[in-house]
Amino acid sequence: SASPGIFIQGLLVHGPGGKVLSQTYLPKEVVERAFSYAEEAQIACCGFLGDRNVTLAAHPRLDELHERYFEPASYVADSLEEILAQDVYKILFYGDDEAVINGSVKPYWEENLVEGAKITRAIPEMLELVPAGTSKATGLAKLLREYSVTPEEMMAVGDGDNDLEMLQLAGLGVAVANATSGLKEVADAMVSSNDDNGAAEALWKFVLKDE
């Protein structure tokens, strides 16, 4: 918490000493509709609160989100009203497979998206609702201004479509080998996959090697 950085899809930005530079939350209407939809569709759903997530129903997929992807653990709220009383950064739906997201979840939200929110996606089996006008790039731009660093001086490494704006912002945008096809199209360079230490390779190859 004392480190500078962008977190939760760029919705939380920490500056020097962990000072909070920016926090952006979803409209309450979006949160309410998201959890109502998840209950009807019987799909795993959680809201990101910061150091923990919240859900209306425990689900193995939410356990996996914590254990495999190291996202905050989800606690089960007693009611939707309890969730709405809190500030929610983003909503995440986690399907059993990509077909569930592409076949029902994504089409529903493309047709019924509430003003003030947008869809983003990092992993094929997941779909996220985040505040409109936000991205990792918007959060990163705030952090760069705090340190008087220009985007041209920055390198960004990514693997998912939710990294696209960030790579476009950076002076050097690097995609790992297992990145989505859309991200590879905008990248300036490629490195090995996440599993093969692609981020470390990028740091060595483009930042440290000539020092």
TrEMBL record:
Q: Which residues cross the membrane?
A: none
What name is this protein filed under? Haloacid dehalogenase-like hydrolase
Q: What is the lineage of its organism?
A: Eukaryota, Viridiplantae, Chlorophyta, Chloropicophyceae, Chloropicales
What is the species of this protein?
Answer: Chloropicon laureae
The biological process GO terms on file are: rRNA processing
List the GO molecular function terms: metalloendopeptidase activity
- One Pfam family from the UniProt entry? Hydrolase_3
- Could you tell me the superkingdom of the organism this chain comes from? Eukaryota
